[in-house]
Amino acid sequence: MSQSFPRYFNENTSKLKIINKDKSVFMKIIAGLLWLTKKMRFHTIDDFMTRYVTTIGCRIYGPTERGSWNMDMEPTSTLYHEMGHVLESKLEPVLYELKYLLSKKWRARYESICVQVEMAMFKERRTIKYADQRAPHFVPYGIPLETMRKELHDRVNELKAGNPHAATTMIVQSEGAWRAQLVQDRRRSE
Ligand SMILES: [Zn+2]
Fold this sequence. Notes:
Layout: H1 5-12, E1 17-20, H2 25-39, H3 48-51, E2 54-56, E3 59-62, H4 77-91, H5 95-102, H6 104-121, H7 128-134, H8 145-160, H9 166-189
Parallel strand pairs: 1-3
Antiparallel strand pairs: 2-3
Helix pairs in contact: 1-9, 4-6, 4-9, 5-6, 6-8, 6-9, 7-8
């Protein structure tokens, strides 16, 4: 059997673990903290355990309600997006996490880069119209709508100009190499 993309990525691009959120005690603790900080009006995130995929370092925690999350899963736009966060954390150790948590501007930047990854993988998303549709989804993260729109517009334009961010390039290259290997494996088994 051919290797899944998550396994290929883990071996050739960057360390990666995909975990079901329900099975993680750590995620349950975070859910408690989020409940508290929501009361303190730091954000408006609801249903952390069921709606959100959460990535910390090289670990992606996915909710059962949104498919099955494991190292043999097929790549989806959400998985590509989260792989973007894995790479952001790898490219800027510690700083990424701090900037993401403490600055709305940086949070918008990092999230928009992960949307750029999706845009690179799915050409139909590479438009200003899509960027505008997507921007409101990040408002619950405490990012002002206009900030997010502007960031997403920049990401679309960078991609169109052939000048994407490092995380985007790394995922596109990794996925391309993985597909090439799949073709090779198929030829070998024929
Ligand atoms: Zn994200």
